[in-house]
Write a structure and sequence with these properties.
3-stranded parallel sheet; 16 helices
Length: 368
């Protein structure tokens, strides 16, 4: 680390970042004040040097991606969150429900990860969700299935009368290999009330992931940023994730998700500057020292911004996705999917080494 940061003091004009550099070299964990300094700094270039150095210490020049697909079986949802443009009430003109035939038509042997999330359907039974997993697992036996957020698991518990623990074990028996990180949004109760009042609480989200890890089911974690949150809210969020990871070591990746306001009831929220995106990703890499991977979610960032984020601590460029719906319903301007060749070129053009992975971060191919 000291070699990677050689000469840093001569380049940096923020003394607080120099203090952080010294902590990193001595392998001392960052605290709240360090996190606040990261969010407040104006020295973006030096921040990038710090976060990319930590990333390179962990992974060298490797940046990962996966050939995956998102499947959203239905957008019918029993709750309505202000930040969401995807969920629709039953009977709405834009509501849809996929048949099993339609779901299976989206599955192919090429996929290494299948990501399944959707609305909280008021009429579907828990057994229907289990059937979806079983059928997808049969159709793509070599793919890992990453399915259902903590919010959905909480809903399954409510509609089935089963405990969260039993819901998770039933999902694993059906074929779920990992949980996505969605539904975390922001843990701050005050902000959560303003953007997603009816949704599962932050405390419940954390406990559901704790139970999943206890049963051997790994997961990702997210933050929804760029809406009504403060720096303190962001730091509280990552601190609580770090604490849980200390206890369970069950998280693979942390994924900052940039809020898309355009078709939501929070459409008047003013956009944050791009430097804020870079600070969020750098904070993630520097503060979440126990998370193996930090992901650049190109769906919300946009492809070019995601490429820049590779220089701010990011070690995962996400995946092909093929057809993303939830974020694009909120007005995301990125493409709905990309090819393997796109990611190889994107990562190489940023000066890094592309590595194709599966959902559990096993390396499948290194593109020298």
């Amino acid at each position: 680390m000291e070699k990677l940061l050689n000469g840093f003091e001569s380049l940096c004009f923020d003394k607080n970042l120099i203090k952080i550099r010294n902590k990193l070299i001595s392998e001392e964990r960052l605290d709240f004040n360090d996190a606040k300094a990261i969010m407040e700094t104006q020295d973006i270039n030096s921040l990038g040097i710090l976060s990319s150095s930590v990333k390179e210490k962990m992974h060298g020049k490797k940046v990962y991606f996966v050939v995956n697909r998102h499947i959203n079986p239905s957008n019918v949802c029993a709750i309505s969150c202000k930040f969401c443009a995807f969920g629709k009430p039953k009977g709405h003109s834009d509501a849809y429900e996929m048949s099993m035939e339609k779901i299976l038509s989206l599955v192919s042997n090429e996929l290494k990860e299948i990501h399944i999330v959707g609305g909280l359907h008021p009429d579907w039974k828990f057994e229907k969700y289990l059937e979806i997993i079983r059928e997808v697992s049969k159709a793509a036996p070599d793919a890992h299935i990453k399915a259902f957020t903590a919010v959905e698991i909480d809903w399954f518990s409510q509609i089935s009368g089963k405990s969260v623990s039993k819901v998770i074990s039933d999902l694993m028996n059906a074929g779920v290999d990992a949980l996505p990180g969605g539904g975390a949004e922001i843990f701050s109760p005050e902000v959560r009330k303003k953007i997603c009042t009816p949704k599962t609480t932050g405390d419940s989200w954390l406990e559901i992931h704790r139970e999943a890890h206890k049963q051997g089911l790994p997961s990702n974690a997210t933050i929804l940023y760029g809406h009504l949150e403060s720096y303190d809210d962001v730091i509280d969020h990552v601190s609580r994730l770090r604490d849980l990871q200390d206890d369970t070591n069950g998280f693979f990746a942390f994924i900052p998700v940039l809020f898309q306001p355009f078709n939501t009831r929070l459409s008047k929220v003013k956009p944050f500057p791009f430097s804020y995106d870079l600070k969020i990703h750098s904070l993630a890499r520097l503060y979440l020292d126990n998370f193996p991977y930090i992901k650049a979610y190109w769906i919300t960032l946009g492809e070019k911004a995601a490429q820049v984020a590779l220089h701010y601590g990011v070690s995962d460029a996400d995946g092909t996705i093929v057809s993303e719906k939830i974020i694009h319903d909120a007005g995301a301007k990125s493409e709905i999917g990309h090819t393997r060749d796109f990611f190889v070129k994107m990562i190489k053009d940023a000066g890094y080494l592309p590595v194709e992975r599966d959902a559990l971060y096993n390396e499948l191919k290194i593109y020298e």
